[in-house]
Write a structure and sequence with these properties.
By secondary structure, the protein is an alpha+beta fold. Helices cover about 40% and strands about 20% of the residues.
Length: about 90
């Protein structure tokens, strides 16, 4: 399974998001990050979930990092996170 599908599966199982977006921006960093051209190394995730309702920003990010620890250790060089409750997302979209 490729990294995008693996991440999507883990996020779906852990957060049951009402909105999920995977943005691969690795191509913008090829001049300073020396991976393969087809390698996914720089990722932005947008996740909207009820699970985030009672968590502050740091705790939300910790949960995501814990779930994706293997992918971060092995493949992802940079991970940007936008983590919202459903109410927060209504205000920013």
């Amino acid at each position: 399974m490729d990294i995008e599908k693996t991440i999507k599966k883990k996020i779906a199982e852990s957060f049951s998001p009402s909105h999920y977006q995977f943005i691969n921006f690795s191509s913008q960093h090829k001049k300073h990050y020396h991976g393969n051209d087809d390698e996914v190394s720089h990722v932005k995730l947008v996740i909207v979930s009820k699970i985030f309702e009672d968590l502050n920003k740091i705790d939300r990010e910790r949960k995501v990092h814990k779930i994706l620890k293997d992918e971060i250790a092995q493949a992802i060089h940079s991970l940007r996170l936008k983590l919202y409750t459903e109410e927060e997302y209504k205000l920013v979209k």
